[in-house]
Structures are given as C-alpha cells and as structure tokens.
Amino acid sequence: MNNENIDHDLLQQELIDVKKQLAESQKMQSIGLLTAGIAHDFNNILTCILGYNELTEMVLETIPESLEKKEASDNLREVKMATSRATELVKQILVYFHVKG
C-alpha cells in the first residue's frame, strides 16, 4: 500500500511536469507566431521603403549634377544599405522561429 502511494505521488508529479512543459511549448509557439507576423509586416514596410527609394533614385537621375544631388544620392544609398540589413535581420528572425518567408 505504501508503494502505491509513492507511485501515485510520482505519477501526479510527472503529470504536473508534463502539463508545465505543454504550457511552455504552447507559449513558445504563440510567441513564434506573433514574431513571424510582426516580421512579415516589417518586411512589407521595408519593401515599401525600398520601392520609394528606387523611385527617388530614378527622379534624381533626371536632375543635373550638383552637390545637393550627390548628397541626396549618398543618403539614398545609406537608406538602401540600412533596409538591406533590416531585411536580413527579418530573415534571421524567421529562420530562428522556423518560418518560411
């Protein structure tokens, strides 16, 4: 009878542990889904930024050379590089949470 109580207690503790693991797994899955959604939205914003950046570069090509044009071109190049780094970061986030982008 004493062994039955010990076995019952062990089973109860094991059940509690499994429930905790399941709750943690579900929490991580929810965090992964939320993160993936945010990453995709962020990627869409980056795509818009790149698109407007390219349109502005095309407009700049029609303007005669000047110091202002050079500065604007340099700024657009920086925007493009920053956007590229951010896009890579989004890819890393999606890979971390095993989401296909």
List keywords for this structure.
single chain; 101 residues; mainly alpha; 2 helices; 0% strand
Strand content: under 5%
The helix-and-strand class reads mainly alpha
Low-confidence stretches: none
Shape: rod-shaped
The count of helical stretches stands at: 2
Q: What is the residue-averaged pLDDT? A: 91
The ordered H/E elements are HH
Number of discrete domains: 1
- Our measurement of the CA-to-CA distance between the termini, rounded to an integer number of angstroms, reads 57 Å
Q: Which bin fits the share of residues in helices?
A: over 70%
Q: What's the main sheet like?
A: none
The total count of strands amounts to: 0
Q: Give the radius of gyration.
A: 26 Å
Topology:
Elements: H1 2-61, H2 67-96
Helix pairs in contact: 1-2
Question: If you had to describe this structure to a student in words, what would you say it looks like?
Answer:
The chain is mainly alpha-helical. The chain has one domain. The chain is 89% helix and 0% strand. The chain has two helices and no strands. Helix 1 runs antiparallel to helix 2. The chain is rod-shaped.
Quick structural summary:
By secondary structure, the protein is mainly α.
